[in-house]
Design a protein that fits this description.
7-stranded antiparallel β-sheet; DUF5719 family protein; about 450 residues; DUF5719; 7-stranded mixed β-sheet; mainly beta; 2 helices
């Protein structure tokens, strides 16, 4: 009997197993219902912030007080031109020169957002000095404070009295470190360590305290707690004769390509130019070309420049006849660069540092400081011509269109003490302002507006 029950259980189990296998076999080709989940995204427009600019301030003289040769004195006040988005107003402020007892405050400007959009703001200043120990013309753009700035200018050799000027236009104190790149590579001098720059104040550090004896220094200004604006004021005296002044702003951030839209050449015999370049992080090779603005064939070209990481290289350029020249640098690793040019080497001469310019792809305001014969130079990138609309920001000026040929450059005159709106219609260009006159030369790059920051797309995980 038990055997019969066992056989029955075995038969029943076999039948159930067969039924399950059959059911699975039938289910395999069947289409199971699926659920598709869309990726959820949220587009968040950053809250517009206050636009803020800081200017380099007055030209400063070092060593005028024989009882305190390290004392700084004001030598020439800066004349500033400022403007903001039409229909808005810029508010003026001051940055106290903590290291210059008799110095005038440097100018600062702010502009509040309007109708939920950040206000574009532009300013630039210039200085003329004619004294026994200091003479020349300088111009610089007033720029937003930054956490990092590259200053490629100046010298630590005898005859130079160069100064790193650091301004904090904000409401929070900043701590700044100055890293110097020289003949032995990257160094962190004691004079450049942990510099406290209180809110609304300006600090000045002599370049000789950072890079004494360095012929081609590069200074990296790094800030914590709050961003700062940095410039490098340079001057030179040759056998007791002043040979010019300059106020150099930060150059474009490290990149594999760098462009200086225009440098000013002179026709004086014996006066050349030199390009200073640095690969901050990696050994690399570079190609340098100098091309007359409006033309396509270089007048100076060198390929295979070997750059050792952290060590600046100075390249002498053939004498450049009077005119404006575009400078292009291409490298296999990120580099920074600028060019030095002078009107002469005797009494009444002047010099300038020409910084590489950042790319501009949004409508941008720029200011033209007072000075001799200012010109705007535009360069285009890519394979297509670029139409740039140029409009005087004040007075309802009529827009003019400047055609920049593909991969080329063009220069146009602009009015001193004026503000313009530059619109490349979503194409990418670079631009700078240059000045050239009798014993006067200067330049500064046009910085792209950040008022048109793109919305942020957030994708929750």
């Amino acid at each position: 009997m038990s055997g019969i029950r066992s056989g029955a259980r075995i038969a029943l189990g076999a039948a159930l197993s067969a039924g399950i296998v059959a059911a699975v076999a039938l289910a395999v080709p069947a289409t199971w219902p699926t659920v598709t989940r869309e990726v959820q995204t949220v587009t968040a427009a950053p809250e517009p912030s206050t636009s803020r600019l800081a200017c380099g301030g007055s030209t400063l003289a070092l060593g005028r007080d024989i009882e305190d040769v390290s004392a700084l004195q004001a030598a020439g006040a800066q004349r500033v031109t400022v403007g903001s988005t039409p229909g808005t107003e810029a508010t003026s402020g001051e940055i106290a020169p903590a290291d210059v007892p008799d110095g005038r405050p440097a100018a600062a400007f702010t502009a509040e957002p309007q109708d939920g959009a950040r206000t574009d703001l532009a300013a630039a200043g210039s200085t003329s000095v004619d004294a026994d120990d200091l003479a020349g013309f300088a111009a610089s753009a007033c720029t937003p404070p930054a956490m990092e700035s590259w200053l490629i200018a100046g010298s630590g050799l005898t005859g130079a009295a160069d100064l790193v000027v650091i301004a904090n236009p904000g409401d929070v104190a900043s701590r700044v470190a100055l890293t110097v790149y020289g003949a032995t590579g990257e160094t962190t001098p004691d004079a450049g360590a942990d510099i406290l720059v209180p809110a609304g104040s300006q600090r000045v550090v002599p370049l000789a305290a950072l890079a004494l004896g360095e012929q081609s220094p590069v200074v990296l200004v790094s800030a914590t707690q709050a961003p700062v604006q940095a410039t490098l004021q340079s001057s030179i005296t040759r056998t007791l004769v002043p040979g010019g002044i300059d106020q150099a702003g930060a150059t474009a951030a490290p990149d594999t390509t760098q462009t200086i839209p225009a440098v000013v050449g002179t026709s004086d015999a014996g006066v050349g130019a030199s390009v200073r370049l640095l690969a901050p992080s990696d050994d690399t090779t570079a190609r340098l070309t100098v091309t007359p603005v409006g033309e396509t064939e270089p007048v100076f070209e060198v390929d295979g420049l070997a750059l050792v990481a952290g060590v600046p290289l100075e390249v002498d350029v053939d004498e450049l006849p009077a005119g404006r020249y575009r400078v292009d640098l291409e490298a296999a690793a990120p580099v920074v660069s600028s060019l030095w040019s002078a009107t002469g080497i005797g009494a009444g001469s002047d010099f300038a540092w020409f910084a590489a310019a950042d790319a501009i792809s949004v409508p941008t305001l720029f200011a033209v400081a007072a000075g001799p014969a200012p010109r705007l130079t535009l360069t285009a990138e890519g394979d297509a011509d670029v139409e740039v609309e140029l409009t005087a920001a004040a007075g309802g000026g009529v827009a003019s269109t400047v055609l920049v040929p593909a991969g080329g450059s063009v220069t146009v005159p602009v009015d001193a003490r004026s503000v313009y709106l530059l619109d490349a219609r979503d194409e990418t260009i670079r631009a700078n302002i240059t000045y050239a006159g009798d014993g006067a030369i200067a330049s500064y790059a046009v910085a792209p507006a950040d008022a048109a920051a793109a919305p942020v797309v957030v994708r929750p995980r």
